[in-house]
Amino acid sequence: MANHFDLEEQEQLDQLKHFWKSWGGFISAVVFIFIFSVTAWNMYGYWKNRQAVQASMLLELIKTSIVSGDLSRVDQAFSEIKSKSPKTIQAAQAGLLVAKVNYDRGENDAAKSALLSVINNSSDVNQKVVANLRLINILFEEKKYDEAFENLSMSFPGAFDGLGKDRRADLMLMRENNKDAISDYLIAYQKYDDNLGYRKLIEFKLNSLGVPNRSFVISDVSSTGILR
C-alpha cells in the first residue's frame, strides 16, 4: 500500500529510533552545552566591553577632575573604578595618576594606597612594576627600608630589571652593605648599556664608592666590593 513503508524503510526507521533512544539524551546534552557555551561567551564579551567603556569614562573623569583641581571628584571616581573595574588597564592608569596627585600634595598614605591597588589588581605586568617602583621610592623617602626591601623581592622583567637592581643597591647602601650595593650597581650598569644618561648616574654612584671609572665587569668585584 502506498501509505505504508516497505520493509527496508521500516528497518531504517527502527534503527534510527533505536539510535536516538540510545544516544538522543547525550546528543541533546552536547547541543545544549554548546549553545550555552556560545551564549555565555558572547555575554562575557559583552560584559567585558561594557566594563571597559565604563572604566574609560571614569578614567576621563579622573583626568578632567585633576586638571580642574576637583580632588573630591577624583577620589569619588577612583573609588568607583576600583570597585567596578579593578582589573582593567584603565583602573591601573587611574591608580598611577591618583597616586601622583596625592604624592604631589604630600598625601603619602593615599598615594601608597593607590599604588597598592595597581600592584594587587592590575593584569598588566608593566603597570604593576611601575607602581611598585614608585611605591619603593616613597618608602625610601619615609626611611621605611624594610618595607622597601620586601617590595624589591617582586620580579622586575626585562627593561625594568636594571631599575630594580639600582633601587636594591640604594637600599644596600642605606644598610651600609657596600659590597652588595656595588654588585647590584654593576648589574644595573650593564642592563642599561643603551641608556647613556642612566649609565652616567650609575657611574657616579660607583665612583662615590671607590670604584674606578673604567669598564665595569661584574666578575672583577673583589671580596671588598671594589673592582680589582
Automatic annotation (TrEMBL):
Q: Does the keyword Chaperone apply?
A: yes
Give the main location.
Answer: membrane
What molecular functions are annotated in GO for this chain?
protein-containing complex binding
**Entry annotated with the keyword Transmembrane:** yes
Q: One GO term of the cellular component aspect?
A: plasma membrane
Q: Where in the cell is it found?
A: Cell membrane
InterPro entries the record matches: SecYEG/CpoB_TPR, TPR-like_helical_dom_sf, YfgM
Q: Report the transmembrane regions from the record.
A: 23-47
Which keywords appear in this protein's UniProt record, sorted alphabetically?
Cell membrane, Chaperone, Membrane, Transmembrane, Transmembrane helix
Ranges for domain Ancillary SecYEG translocon subunit/Cell division coordinator CpoB TPR come to: 17-210
Q: How does it sit in the membrane?
A: Single-pass type II membrane protein
> One short Pfam family name for this protein?
TPR_21
Give the protein family: Belongs to the YfgM family.
Q: Per its record, how is this protein called by name?
A: Ancillary SecYEG translocon subunit
